[in-house]
Amino acid sequence: MLQIEKLNQFYGGSHILRDISFTAAIGEVTCVLGRNGVGKSTLLRCLMGVLPIASGQITWQGQVVNSLSPHQRVQRGMAYVPQGREIFARLSVEENLRMGLARFRGAKGRQIPSSVYDMFPVLAQMRHRRGGDLSGGQQQQLAIARALVSEPSLLILDEPTEGIQPSIIKDIGHVIKQLAARGDMAIVLVEQYYDFAEALADRYVVMARGEVVQAGAGQAMVTEGVRELLAI
Ligand SMILES: Nc1ncnc2c1ncn2[C@@H]1O[C@H](COP(=O)(O)OP(=O)(O)OP(=O)(O)O)[C@@H](O)[C@H]1O
Ligand SMILES: [Mg+2]
Predict the structure, then answer these.
(1) How far is ligand 1, taken at its centre, from the CA of residue 230, in Å?
(2) Phi and psi dihedrals of 93, rounded to 5?
(3) pTM score
(4) One digit per residue, pLDDT tens: the chain, 232 residues?
(5) What is the DSSP pairing of strand 186-191 with strand 29-33?
(6) Best residue for ligand 1 mutational test, from 40, 47, 81, 194 (most atoms within 8 Å of Cβ)
(7) Cα 45–49–52 angle (5° rounding)?
């Protein structure tokens, strides 16, 4: 389980994350929702260790990871798909995927598991293409696949539907559902696309101005007025 307790973060003098607390369980999709600029990506960067936190505690599988580097967090089974994907445009699809294998040594560190190609067949067809030549949706699939080859038990996704065509959004939603159903992975999904989040969330967390303003069960998103909350 991932436990976040009273996380605070500042950019210069601006207080961006204010006492953020929530948990994300294995086998569940925890959706973090919120309008532009509320601090969702900042939260994920803190979780992954890309950005240091000012105070608070991040515990993953019973261990406090606050002082670990991003690389060490990957070693402990955390994987991150950043907003905007950040794939390597000049490297091939296969080479991009191999970057995700950095966690492993020996033969395992070189062999891309066929399961990712089963999950994203388009990547198999395009394995020798350059990342930069893929469509936005294909790049998003590549970014998710690159995270998955590290065999994470915590998958952190930052707005995977942003700027992506509907058919690929559907495919990505299907993959996230499948991963959650396996029951061995916690998924933290940041989204602004309400319908996508509602379809996937086991738990939801709404942020506004750097704070958690509401949280609950995914099934209760409609009755608890989450859509309206995001529209305000
Ligand atoms: N490197 C930075 N330096 C200073 N301020 C920043 C920096 N990055 C983000 N901010 C500010 O921090 C706040 C939170 O940004 P963040 O990117 O975490 O929001 P977000 O919820 O992910 O937004 P979006 O939905 O648009 O992706 C915003 O006001 C943003 O302008
Ligand atoms: Mg963001």
Answers:
(1) 17
(2) -55, -45
(3) 0.96
(4) 999 999 999 999 999 999 999 999 999 999 999 999 999 999 999 999 999 999 999 999 999 999 999 999 999 999 999 999 899 999 999 999 999 998 888 888 889 999 999 999 999 999 999 999 999 999 999 999 999 999 999 999 999 999 999 999 999 999 999 999 999 999 999 999 999 999 999 999 999 999 999 999 999 999 999 999 998 6
(5) parallel
(6) 40
(7) 85
Q: Is the CB of 16 under 6 A from ligand 1?
A: yes
| Domain, as residue range, for 128 | 2-231
Tokens 């495919």: give the residue.
171
Residues 6+ apart with CB under 8 A from 67: none
Contact between 74 and 121 under an 8 Å Cβ cutoff? The reply is no
**H-run or E-run covering 5:** strand 2-11
Strands 211-217 and 203-208: antiparallel
For the Cβ of 140 lying below 6 angstroms from any atom of ligand 1, the answer is no
- From 4, 9, 37, 36, select the one nearest 186 (Cα to Cα): 4
163 burial level (CB within 10 Å; 0-12, 13-18, 19+): exposed
Number of domains in the chain: 1
Residue type at 55 in one-letter notation: S
CA distance 17 to 5: 12
Q: What is the CATH number of the domain that holds 192?
A: 3.40.50.300
